[in-house]
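debug: dumping io for the single-chain case to check the tokenizer round-trip. Nothing else runs in this session.
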Amino acid sequence: MRRLILLRHAKAERAQPGGSDLNRILTDRGRSDAIRLGAYMARHGLIPDQALVSTSKRTRETWALLSKAFSNPPGARFEERIYEASPQAILQAIQDIAPTGQTLLVVGHNPSLHQVATMLAVSGDIDARQRLKEDFPTAALAVVSFAIEDWQGFDFHGGRLEHFVRPRELEAASD
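debug: decoded output
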């Protein structure tokens, strides 16, 4: 069994005219959401063995803040392929992961991360899948499990949605 955690970066500054999208940083709310999300993940045992993180500043900052909640945070691999990626590029990055570890975290961007999450979650809680289809805001987290031996066997079919949480639901989430 493998578990994939898909996380959209936390709330970031708006792009500035002439500024680099890659260099946008988190807002105060984004920092707060990332910290609360890390606490939620730790409390629910959603600790990754490995992390694939986009090379943007906002994804790196999201990872740095949320990983502080883990007693032994895993190493992160910063992947250019995840920035402005197609769903297929994200799939390829996941398949290229070494076959160690059961849980992989991908920290990336919309719209591709939302597309990947909706394609993967073919079973699981119907209400959670419907909420996932409707919206994947900043700092949204989707956890999808697969009955596969290693990441090379991973594809866009057969995933079961275990968790879907958005920042506004973090305080109310108790299960």
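debug: round-trip ok. The beta strands are 2-8, 50-54, 76-79, 103-108, 121-124, 141-146, 159-165.
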